Amino acid sequence: MGFFKKLFGGNQKKSSEQEEKKTSEYNLKWINPEQNPWGLKILDLRPISQNMLSTSKDPKMATNAISYGQEDGTAFTEYSPKSKRTFSSDLTISTDEKLEEGVLFNPSTMENKWAIYFINDRLLFIRSWLREAFVVAKTTQEKNQLRITEITGEFTDNESSKMTESILMFLLYSHSLNETVPAPIPKDLSSNTDQAGMWAFSTYGNMAHFGYFGEDFNYKTALKLRTHSLLHIAIARGELDKINLELDRNTNINCLAGDGLSTLQWAITADSNVLSLLLDKGANPNTKSTEGATPIMNAVQSNKVEHLNILIENKADINAKDNRGFTALHRASEMGHKEIVRILLENGADKNVEAESHTPLSLAIAMKNKEIINLLEK
Protein backbone atom coordinates (compact mmCIF):
# COMPACT_ATOMS: atom_id res chain seq x y z
CA MET A 1 0.00 0.00 0.00
CA GLY A 2 2.99 2.35 0.21
CA PHE A 3 2.76 2.85 -3.57
CA PHE A 4 -0.84 4.02 -3.33
CA LYS A 5 -0.20 6.29 -0.35
CA LYS A 6 2.67 7.98 -2.17
CA LEU A 7 0.86 8.34 -5.48
CA PHE A 8 -2.64 9.19 -4.35
CA GLY A 9 -2.27 10.45 -0.76
CA GLY A 10 -3.25 8.97 2.60
CA ASN A 11 -6.60 8.27 4.23
CA GLN A 12 -9.26 10.96 4.01
CA LYS A 13 -11.76 12.00 6.68
CA LYS A 14 -15.16 10.30 6.48
CA SER A 15 -18.45 12.14 6.31
CA SER A 16 -21.68 11.03 8.00
CA GLU A 17 -24.09 11.32 5.05
CA GLN A 18 -26.36 8.40 4.17
CA GLU A 19 -24.61 7.34 0.99
CA GLU A 20 -25.56 10.67 -0.57
CA LYS A 21 -23.56 13.38 -2.30
CA LYS A 22 -22.61 16.51 -0.40
CA THR A 23 -22.36 18.26 -3.76
CA SER A 24 -23.17 17.37 -7.32
CA GLU A 25 -19.56 16.40 -8.06
CA TYR A 26 -17.24 13.97 -6.25
CA ASN A 27 -14.35 14.89 -8.51
CA LEU A 28 -13.35 11.27 -9.09
CA LYS A 29 -10.07 11.12 -11.02
CA TRP A 30 -9.05 8.83 -13.86
CA ILE A 31 -5.69 7.06 -13.55
CA ASN A 32 -3.97 6.07 -16.77
CA PRO A 33 -2.57 2.54 -17.36
CA GLU A 34 1.07 3.66 -17.07
CA GLN A 35 0.34 5.18 -13.64
CA ASN A 36 -0.85 2.05 -11.85
CA PRO A 37 0.39 -1.54 -11.30
CA TRP A 38 -2.42 -3.19 -13.28
CA GLY A 39 -1.93 -1.49 -16.64
CA LEU A 40 -5.59 -0.46 -16.82
CA LYS A 41 -7.39 2.84 -17.11
CA ILE A 42 -8.99 2.98 -13.68
CA LEU A 43 -11.15 5.35 -11.68
CA ASP A 44 -10.08 6.45 -8.19
CA LEU A 45 -13.17 5.62 -6.10
CA ARG A 46 -11.75 6.60 -2.73
CA PRO A 47 -13.34 10.07 -2.50
CA ILE A 48 -16.59 8.10 -2.18
CA SER A 49 -15.64 4.67 -0.82
CA GLN A 50 -13.31 5.94 1.89
CA ASN A 51 -15.23 9.11 2.79
CA MET A 52 -18.77 7.87 3.14
CA LEU A 53 -20.59 6.07 5.92
CA SER A 54 -23.53 3.75 5.34
CA THR A 55 -26.72 4.13 7.35
CA SER A 56 -30.16 2.61 7.12
CA LYS A 57 -33.59 3.71 8.36
CA ASP A 58 -34.50 0.03 8.67
CA PRO A 59 -33.29 -1.15 12.12
CA LYS A 60 -33.27 -4.77 10.97
CA MET A 61 -30.79 -3.99 8.19
CA ALA A 62 -28.59 -2.05 10.59
CA THR A 63 -28.65 -4.98 13.01
CA ASN A 64 -27.93 -7.47 10.24
CA ALA A 65 -24.97 -5.47 8.99
CA ILE A 66 -23.09 -5.82 12.27
CA SER A 67 -24.33 -9.30 13.24
CA TYR A 68 -21.39 -11.34 11.98
CA GLY A 69 -18.96 -11.15 14.91
CA GLN A 70 -19.55 -14.77 16.00
CA GLU A 71 -20.67 -16.11 12.62
CA ASP A 72 -18.90 -19.22 11.32
CA GLY A 73 -21.00 -19.61 8.16
CA THR A 74 -22.82 -22.80 9.12
CA ALA A 75 -26.08 -20.88 9.61
CA PHE A 76 -26.14 -20.30 5.84
CA THR A 77 -25.58 -23.93 4.83
CA GLU A 78 -29.05 -24.36 3.32
CA TYR A 79 -29.38 -20.85 1.90
CA SER A 80 -29.87 -20.49 -1.85
CA PRO A 81 -30.05 -17.37 -4.05
CA LYS A 82 -33.35 -15.85 -5.10
CA SER A 83 -32.03 -15.72 -8.64
CA LYS A 84 -31.93 -19.27 -9.95
CA ARG A 85 -29.80 -18.41 -12.97
CA THR A 86 -27.10 -21.12 -13.11
CA PHE A 87 -24.14 -21.45 -15.44
CA SER A 88 -20.93 -23.45 -15.70
CA SER A 89 -17.62 -21.85 -14.81
CA ASP A 90 -13.93 -22.68 -14.88
CA LEU A 91 -12.45 -20.06 -12.54
CA THR A 92 -9.51 -21.06 -10.33
CA ILE A 93 -7.71 -19.57 -7.35
CA SER A 94 -4.69 -20.89 -5.46
CA THR A 95 -5.16 -22.30 -1.97
CA ASP A 96 -2.79 -23.02 0.88
CA GLU A 97 -3.02 -26.80 0.71
CA LYS A 98 -6.68 -27.87 1.07
CA LEU A 99 -9.20 -25.10 1.67
CA GLU A 100 -11.01 -26.06 4.87
CA GLU A 101 -14.61 -25.17 5.66
CA GLY A 102 -15.02 -21.87 7.44
CA VAL A 103 -15.01 -18.09 7.16
CA LEU A 104 -13.46 -16.27 4.21
CA PHE A 105 -14.72 -12.85 5.25
CA ASN A 106 -16.95 -11.59 8.04
CA PRO A 107 -18.20 -8.01 7.75
CA SER A 108 -17.47 -5.79 10.75
CA THR A 109 -18.99 -2.45 9.72
CA MET A 110 -21.99 -1.25 7.74
CA GLU A 111 -19.58 -0.31 4.95
CA ASN A 112 -18.78 -4.03 4.45
CA LYS A 113 -21.41 -5.28 2.01
CA TRP A 114 -20.59 -9.01 1.85
CA ALA A 115 -19.94 -12.02 4.05
CA ILE A 116 -18.13 -14.92 2.38
CA TYR A 117 -18.00 -18.54 3.57
CA PHE A 118 -16.79 -21.90 2.31
CA ILE A 119 -19.18 -24.64 3.41
CA ASN A 120 -19.87 -28.07 1.86
CA ASP A 121 -17.54 -27.38 -1.07
CA ARG A 122 -19.52 -24.24 -1.93
CA LEU A 123 -18.60 -20.57 -1.82
CA LEU A 124 -21.44 -18.61 -0.21
CA PHE A 125 -21.72 -14.88 -0.89
CA ILE A 126 -24.10 -13.34 1.63
CA ARG A 127 -25.38 -9.76 1.27
CA SER A 128 -24.55 -8.46 4.73
CA TRP A 129 -27.46 -6.05 5.34
CA LEU A 130 -30.02 -8.63 4.21
CA ARG A 131 -28.38 -11.83 5.48
CA GLU A 132 -29.41 -13.39 2.18
CA ALA A 133 -27.41 -15.54 -0.21
CA PHE A 134 -26.98 -13.74 -3.53
CA VAL A 135 -24.48 -16.11 -5.17
CA VAL A 136 -23.51 -19.72 -4.44
CA ALA A 137 -20.65 -21.38 -6.32
CA LYS A 138 -19.91 -25.08 -6.44
CA THR A 139 -16.22 -26.01 -6.31
CA THR A 140 -13.71 -28.81 -6.52
CA GLN A 141 -10.15 -28.93 -5.21
CA GLU A 142 -7.01 -30.43 -6.69
CA LYS A 143 -3.29 -29.66 -6.37
CA ASN A 144 -3.73 -26.58 -4.17
CA GLN A 145 -6.28 -25.07 -6.54
CA LEU A 146 -9.92 -24.24 -5.88
CA ARG A 147 -11.87 -24.61 -9.11
CA ILE A 148 -15.30 -23.02 -9.41
CA THR A 149 -17.43 -25.30 -11.57
CA GLU A 150 -20.93 -23.84 -11.33
CA ILE A 151 -22.39 -20.51 -10.22
CA THR A 152 -25.99 -19.83 -9.19
CA GLY A 153 -27.41 -16.34 -8.63
CA GLU A 154 -26.19 -12.83 -9.35
CA PHE A 155 -24.62 -9.98 -7.40
CA THR A 156 -26.53 -7.20 -9.18
CA ASP A 157 -29.68 -7.14 -11.30
CA ASN A 158 -29.44 -8.54 -14.82
CA GLU A 159 -25.65 -8.77 -14.91
CA SER A 160 -23.92 -10.96 -17.48
CA SER A 161 -22.40 -14.27 -16.40
CA LYS A 162 -18.99 -12.76 -17.17
CA MET A 163 -19.73 -9.89 -14.79
CA THR A 164 -20.82 -12.35 -12.11
CA GLU A 165 -17.49 -14.15 -12.45
CA SER A 166 -15.56 -10.89 -12.38
CA ILE A 167 -17.31 -9.66 -9.22
CA LEU A 168 -16.88 -13.06 -7.57
CA MET A 169 -13.12 -13.03 -8.12
CA PHE A 170 -12.84 -9.39 -7.02
CA LEU A 171 -14.58 -10.25 -3.74
CA LEU A 172 -12.21 -13.14 -3.10
CA TYR A 173 -9.15 -11.00 -3.82
CA SER A 174 -10.29 -7.88 -1.98
CA HIS A 175 -12.15 -9.40 0.96
CA SER A 176 -10.60 -12.82 1.57
CA LEU A 177 -7.01 -12.05 0.50
CA ASN A 178 -7.09 -8.36 1.49
CA GLU A 179 -5.58 -7.35 -1.84
CA THR A 180 -6.12 -3.90 -3.33
CA VAL A 181 -7.34 -4.60 -6.87
CA PRO A 182 -9.62 -2.66 -9.23
CA ALA A 183 -13.32 -3.44 -8.85
CA PRO A 184 -15.40 -4.22 -11.94
CA ILE A 185 -18.02 -1.59 -12.85
CA PRO A 186 -20.54 -1.82 -15.73
CA LYS A 187 -19.25 -0.19 -18.90
CA ASP A 188 -22.43 1.82 -19.41
CA LEU A 189 -21.56 3.87 -16.28
CA SER A 190 -18.20 5.05 -17.61
CA SER A 191 -19.60 8.37 -18.86
CA ASN A 192 -20.87 9.37 -15.41
CA THR A 193 -18.12 8.94 -12.81
CA ASP A 194 -20.31 10.04 -9.88
CA GLN A 195 -22.92 7.45 -10.76
CA ALA A 196 -20.20 4.83 -11.23
CA GLY A 197 -18.71 5.67 -7.83
CA MET A 198 -22.06 5.39 -6.09
CA TRP A 199 -22.78 2.10 -7.86
CA ALA A 200 -19.42 0.76 -6.68
CA PHE A 201 -20.05 1.91 -3.09
CA SER A 202 -23.49 0.31 -3.08
CA THR A 203 -22.06 -2.94 -4.44
CA TYR A 204 -18.68 -3.17 -2.72
CA GLY A 205 -18.79 -0.67 0.15
CA ASN A 206 -15.44 0.55 1.40
CA MET A 207 -13.55 -2.38 -0.15
CA ALA A 208 -13.41 -0.79 -3.61
CA HIS A 209 -10.56 1.72 -3.80
CA PHE A 210 -10.34 1.75 -7.58
CA GLY A 211 -12.66 0.71 -10.37
CA TYR A 212 -12.36 -0.39 -13.98
CA PHE A 213 -15.05 -0.63 -16.62
CA GLY A 214 -14.90 -4.18 -17.85
CA GLU A 215 -15.42 -7.84 -17.08
CA ASP A 216 -12.21 -9.52 -18.20
CA PHE A 217 -9.41 -8.34 -15.88
CA ASN A 218 -7.28 -11.43 -15.15
CA TYR A 219 -5.54 -10.58 -11.87
CA LYS A 220 -2.72 -12.77 -10.51
CA THR A 221 -1.39 -12.94 -6.97
CA ALA A 222 1.10 -15.03 -5.02
CA LEU A 223 -1.22 -15.10 -2.00
CA LYS A 224 -3.03 -18.32 -1.14
CA LEU A 225 -6.66 -18.57 -0.12
CA ARG A 226 -7.30 -19.79 3.45
CA THR A 227 -10.33 -19.78 5.73
CA HIS A 228 -10.67 -19.14 9.41
CA SER A 229 -11.53 -22.83 9.56
CA LEU A 230 -14.33 -24.28 11.66
CA LEU A 231 -11.57 -26.02 13.60
CA HIS A 232 -9.84 -22.72 14.36
CA ILE A 233 -13.14 -21.20 15.45
CA ALA A 234 -13.94 -24.13 17.75
CA ILE A 235 -10.45 -23.76 19.25
CA ALA A 236 -10.94 -20.05 19.90
CA ARG A 237 -14.25 -20.81 21.60
CA GLY A 238 -12.80 -23.66 23.65
CA GLU A 239 -15.43 -26.07 22.29
CA LEU A 240 -13.78 -29.46 22.78
CA ASP A 241 -16.69 -31.44 21.29
CA LYS A 242 -16.60 -29.37 18.09
CA ILE A 243 -12.83 -29.68 17.91
CA ASN A 244 -13.17 -33.45 18.02
CA LEU A 245 -15.99 -33.31 15.46
CA GLU A 246 -13.84 -31.32 13.03
CA LEU A 247 -10.93 -33.71 13.48
CA ASP A 248 -13.25 -36.67 12.90
CA ARG A 249 -14.23 -34.96 9.62
CA ASN A 250 -10.54 -35.03 8.64
CA THR A 251 -9.97 -31.30 8.92
CA ASN A 252 -6.21 -30.75 8.73
CA ILE A 253 -5.10 -30.39 12.34
CA ASN A 254 -2.10 -28.29 11.24
CA CYS A 255 -3.91 -25.98 8.81
CA LEU A 256 -3.29 -22.25 8.86
CA ALA A 257 -6.12 -19.74 9.24
CA GLY A 258 -6.74 -16.69 7.10
CA ASP A 259 -4.48 -14.70 9.44
CA GLY A 260 -1.61 -17.09 8.72
CA LEU A 261 -1.63 -18.74 12.17
CA SER A 262 -1.84 -22.46 12.89
CA THR A 263 -4.40 -24.21 15.06
CA LEU A 264 -1.89 -24.48 17.92
CA GLN A 265 -1.19 -20.77 17.69
CA TRP A 266 -4.89 -20.02 18.05
CA ALA A 267 -4.93 -22.44 21.01
CA ILE A 268 -2.48 -20.20 22.88
CA THR A 269 -5.37 -17.80 23.55
CA ALA A 270 -7.62 -20.63 24.81
CA ASP A 271 -7.48 -22.77 27.94
CA SER A 272 -4.46 -25.03 28.14
CA ASN A 273 -6.66 -28.14 27.86
CA VAL A 274 -7.41 -27.14 24.25
CA LEU A 275 -3.69 -27.05 23.49
CA SER A 276 -3.19 -30.42 25.19
CA LEU A 277 -6.05 -31.98 23.22
CA LEU A 278 -4.60 -30.86 19.90
CA LEU A 279 -1.15 -32.13 20.77
CA ASP A 280 -2.62 -35.45 21.96
CA LYS A 281 -4.42 -35.69 18.60
CA GLY A 282 -1.15 -35.29 16.72
CA ALA A 283 -0.76 -31.57 16.06
CA ASN A 284 2.79 -30.63 15.08
CA PRO A 285 4.26 -28.53 17.95
CA ASN A 286 6.56 -26.81 15.44
CA THR A 287 4.03 -25.64 12.85
CA LYS A 288 5.00 -22.25 11.46
CA SER A 289 2.87 -19.26 10.62
CA THR A 290 3.28 -17.42 7.33
CA GLU A 291 5.82 -15.22 9.16
CA GLY A 292 7.72 -18.26 10.43
CA ALA A 293 6.55 -18.02 14.04
CA THR A 294 6.01 -21.23 16.00
CA PRO A 295 3.48 -21.92 18.79
CA ILE A 296 6.23 -21.64 21.39
CA MET A 297 6.91 -18.08 20.19
CA ASN A 298 3.24 -17.21 20.55
CA ALA A 299 3.17 -18.64 24.06
CA VAL A 300 6.22 -16.53 24.94
CA GLN A 301 4.76 -13.40 23.41
CA SER A 302 1.48 -13.89 25.31
CA ASN A 303 3.37 -14.71 28.53
CA LYS A 304 1.54 -18.04 28.84
CA VAL A 305 3.80 -20.10 31.11
CA GLU A 306 1.48 -23.10 31.33
CA HIS A 307 1.11 -23.28 27.56
CA LEU A 308 4.86 -22.92 27.15
CA ASN A 309 5.54 -25.85 29.49
CA ILE A 310 3.02 -28.03 27.64
CA LEU A 311 4.75 -27.29 24.33
CA ILE A 312 8.18 -28.03 25.80
CA GLU A 313 6.87 -31.34 27.17
CA ASN A 314 5.71 -32.16 23.65
CA LYS A 315 9.15 -31.58 22.12
CA ALA A 316 8.59 -28.11 20.69
CA ASP A 317 11.80 -26.67 19.26
CA ILE A 318 12.91 -23.96 21.70
CA ASN A 319 15.53 -22.63 19.27
CA ALA A 320 13.31 -22.40 16.19
CA LYS A 321 13.78 -19.19 14.20
CA ASP A 322 11.14 -17.11 12.49
CA ASN A 323 11.53 -15.66 9.00
CA ARG A 324 13.67 -12.84 10.37
CA GLY A 325 15.88 -15.15 12.42
CA PHE A 326 14.49 -14.34 15.87
CA THR A 327 13.88 -17.05 18.49
CA ALA A 328 11.52 -17.38 21.43
CA LEU A 329 14.32 -16.22 23.73
CA HIS A 330 14.69 -13.02 21.72
CA ARG A 331 11.00 -12.31 22.28
CA ALA A 332 11.02 -13.10 25.99
CA SER A 333 14.13 -11.02 26.59
CA GLU A 334 12.78 -7.99 24.79
CA MET A 335 9.34 -8.19 26.39
CA GLY A 336 10.69 -8.61 29.93
CA HIS A 337 9.18 -12.04 30.65
CA LYS A 338 11.63 -13.09 33.34
CA GLU A 339 10.04 -16.42 34.27
CA ILE A 340 9.83 -17.46 30.64
CA VAL A 341 13.45 -16.48 30.02
CA ARG A 342 14.43 -18.72 32.94
CA ILE A 343 12.36 -21.65 31.62
CA LEU A 344 13.77 -21.31 28.13
CA LEU A 345 17.36 -21.21 29.37
CA GLU A 346 16.80 -24.23 31.63
CA ASN A 347 15.50 -26.15 28.62
CA GLY A 348 18.42 -25.40 26.32
CA ALA A 349 17.63 -22.08 24.66
CA ASP A 350 20.64 -20.71 22.79
CA LYS A 351 21.36 -17.21 24.14
CA ASN A 352 23.99 -16.50 21.47
CA VAL A 353 21.68 -16.55 18.43
CA GLU A 354 21.93 -13.29 16.48
CA ALA A 355 19.12 -11.90 14.36
CA GLU A 356 19.30 -8.56 12.59
CA SER A 357 22.35 -7.71 14.72
CA HIS A 358 20.51 -8.50 17.97
CA THR A 359 21.04 -11.22 20.56
CA PRO A 360 18.64 -11.85 23.45
CA LEU A 361 21.15 -10.07 25.69
CA SER A 362 21.37 -6.98 23.48
CA LEU A 363 17.58 -6.71 23.50
CA ALA A 364 17.46 -7.01 27.29
CA ILE A 365 20.14 -4.32 27.56
CA ALA A 366 18.18 -2.06 25.24
CA MET A 367 15.14 -2.50 27.48
CA LYS A 368 17.31 -1.93 30.62
CA ASN A 369 15.92 -5.06 32.26
CA LYS A 370 18.59 -5.91 34.86
CA GLU A 371 17.00 -9.17 36.03
CA ILE A 372 16.93 -10.63 32.54
CA ILE A 373 20.41 -9.29 31.80
CA ASN A 374 21.66 -11.18 34.86
CA LEU A 375 19.95 -14.38 33.74
CA LEU A 376 21.49 -14.15 30.27
CA GLU A 377 24.96 -13.31 31.57
CA LYS A 378 25.16 -16.33 33.87
From TrEMBL:
InterPro entries assigned to the protein according to its UniProt record, in alphabetical order? Ankyrin_rpt, Ankyrin_rpt-contain_sf
Q: Which Pfam families match?
A: Ank (PF00023), Ank_2 (PF12796)
- ANK repeats: which residues? 291-323, 324-356
Question: What SUPFAM superfamilies does the database record attribute to this sequence?
Answer: Ankyrin repeat
What domain of life? Bacteria
**Keywords from the UniProt entry:** ANK repeat, Repeat
Q: PANTHER family under this entry?
A: ANKYRIN REPEAT AND PROTEIN KINASE DOMAIN-CONTAINING PROTEIN (PTHR24198), ANKYRIN REPEAT-CONTAINING PROTEIN-RELATED (PTHR24198:SF165)
- Name it: Uncharacterized protein
Q: Which organism is it from?
A: Aquimarina algiphila
